[in-house]
Amino acid sequence: MLGCLTPKRSDSTRGDANWGSSTQSALTQRARTRPPQEHEDGDPPLPSRDPCIRTPGAAGSGVRLFAKRAPGGPAGRARVSAASHRPGRATPPSTQKRGAHVPLDEQTQPASTPVPPPEAAQKPQGATPVAPPEEIEAARDRRPLESYFQEIGGTRTLKREEEVVLAKDLEAATAALRDALYAIPGSARYVIARWDALRAMSHTGAKLSESTGDEDTTQIAARVEGAANRMRRHLKKRDALPARAPKNQISRLDKSIAKELHNAQLSLALLAELRDEVRRTGRDLRRARKGSRRLKELQATAGHDKGTFGEHWNAVEAAQDQLTAVKNRFIEHNLKLVVAIAKDYRNLGLSFPDLIQEGNLGLIRAVEKFDHRRGFKFSTYAVWWIRQALVRAIQNHSRTIRLPSHVHDRLQRSQRVKAELTGKLGREPTPAELAPALGTDTDALESLDRLSREAISLESSVAGTEKRLEDFVPDSAASIPDGRIDDDRVRSGVGHLIGALSDREQLILRLRYGLSGEEEHTLEQIGQNLRLSRERVRQLEARALKKLRETMPAQRLHPILEP
How many domains, the chain? Predict the structure, then answer.
């Protein structure tokens, strides 16, 4: 403490022997209590005049911040020592360093002239200023990428040995989560229900299980099918046990069920579904009233009473927390790898933040699938998952109208071959030159070129006008005005023509051919409306048409029907 209250005197203050402890304490207290600010011109804050305060960079270096201000600083501050700031005193000439520059205003100022108040004379000085939390959050919103890069910049790349340790910890946490979930008989019921639902949709069900080695889809499905059938038998035996069955008998069946769940090699996606299902069951058990029918049904489904199920759920939560912590640590140390790879995929339709986000999803998948026993570094393995996630995101989200993946591959190959031919020929190749290089014909190449064009909104404005693009695009489905006139003339002529028929014959023709705007009816539908047989309706229709053909006014429609 004494060292802080009695600072070392610099050359400019060596002659100021009457420096009072009370004045120094006042200045120290003022520097500590005054809030940090920045200069008007954006310069960094001045160092603190409190000898006990040091900047973060000077910690432990022995350099005091009780120093002179360089000339030419903001607002034209003079270089003065701390002693010259004492009201009513000036630095004696004898104490000034020989050859030191003293500004003009300091030379001409009388010794009795008081220094302006601290609020106007000098800016608050201290350590690195700390902005309020709301300003920090606003800055992060304005510069999300910069904040993200600062956060991941402090992490280092893991060594091979550290990756192996983390991978083993991840395997142990995953195994603990599986053990905790498989100890609940209700997990087997959920897996069997999911398997039956997939098989009912003619699905192989292979996605419920992870591949072990070089298994194909059929082998995986057969393995899961066998495990599901054995679990059904064990659950049937367990449900048939009396209420007061020995605990060792129940425990034996539970272990057999858990063993079959392990043999099924459930995928991580199904493991997450199973965890959520167990969480919902636990929530329903807590809400169920004691002695209610609902509580008994839930306990029968879960396979445990309320207390035992709570113990198993606590084990599931602990294993999940451990798994999440290890996975997050693995991911955080490789976030910079995603940024480095995402830079190669810019200007392809997705923004850089979106690319980083999609690449992080690929990184998460790589962490889940990494096998340290194969002997390569994690970055070598993860780069393929990250690139695959980036390419898939560009294919799915970069265009207004999504194109299939194989079309994207053909477009990329076409662009690559076109660039190679341009370098060889010194000009852009013609379709006739590009088609043989791609192994296709010019028609397919033209179709591919049309697919590569970006979609344009019909509501976009045309340059130099206030009209929209849709005002200039022809509508092939629109009817021609002359055609509408002809339709009206035909409709009017047919109406006058069938007026000579009986009411029933007119109704049959109108319903049969939709002359009055109704939908066309079948003979059976017309017969049901008129309570006639289908054959009788056909006869009436034929007779009415024969009358129309023999009528002279029918000749009036010939000029209209001529091409």
Answer: 4
Sole residue written with tokens 């973060």: 56
pLDDT tens string 443-492: 888 888 888 787 788 888 887 778 888 887 777 777 677 767 777 777 77
Residue 519 predicted with pLDDT over 50? yes
Domain final position from 116, 133, 167? 116
Q: What whole-number distance in Å separates Cα of residue 51 and Cα of residue 7?
A: 6
Asked if pLDDT for residue 131 goes beyond 70, the answer is no
- The CA–CA distances, whole Å, from 236 to 183, 197, 252 equal 17, 20, 14
Asked whether the beta carbons of 42 and 7 are under 8 A apart, the reply is no
Q: What is the CATH number of the domain that holds 445?
A: 1.20.140.160
Q: Which of 498, 477, 494, 481 is nearest to 558 (CA)?
A: 494
Q: Can you tell me the mean pLDDT for 403-411? A: 85
The answer as to whether 311 is a domain residue is no
DSSP 53: -
Give per-residue pLDDT as tens, 423-433: 998 999 998 88
- Residue ending a domain, among 116, 150, 177, is 116
Residue 166 · residue 330 · CB < 8 Å: yes
Q: 83 and 14, same structural domain?
A: yes
DSSP assignment, residue 461? Answer: B
d(CA 509, CA 517) in angstroms, rounded, equals 12
Residue recorded with tokens 């190669």: 344
Contacts of 405 (CB under 8 A, 6+ apart): 392, 395
**pLDDT at residue 559 tops 60:** no
Domain residues for the domain of 364 are 335-398
Q: Are residues 378 and 407 in the same domain?
A: no
Q: Compute CA distances 437 → 124, 304, 420, 421, whole Å.
A: 72, 68, 10, 9
Instruction: Name the average pLDDT for the chain.
Output: 74
211 band by pLDDT with thresholds 50, 70 and 90? low
Q: Which two tokens stand for residue 500?
A: 């000579």
Could you give the C-alpha distances from 531 to 241, 302, 527, in angstroms and in order?
67, 62, 5
pLDDT value, residue 98: 44
Contact 353, 144 (CB under 8 A): yes
Strand partners, 468: 461
Query: What angle separates helix 306-332 from helix 268-287, to the nearest 10 degrees?
Result: 140
The count of residues in the chain is: 563
Average pLDDT, integer, range 390-411: 86
Instruction: Confirm whether 202 is domain-assigned.
Output: no
**Model confidence at 121: pLDDT above 80:** no
What is the Cα–Cα distance from 54 to 188, expressed in whole angstroms? 64
Strand partners, 266: 209
pLDDT band at 270 (very low <50, low <70, confident <90, very high): confident
Q: Do 533 and 433 reside in the same domain of the chain?
A: no
What is the Cα–Cα distance from 352 to 369, expressed in whole angstroms?
26
Task: Tell me, yes or no, whether 339 lies in a domain.
Answer: yes
Identify the helix (H) or strand (E) that includes residue 493.
helix 481-497
Domain assignment present for 147: no
Measured distance CA(234)–CA(188) in Å, rounded: 10
- Which two tokens mark 284? 């329903």
Quote the distance between the C-alpha of residue 156 and its chain's center. 24
Whether the predicted pLDDT of 122 surpasses 60: no
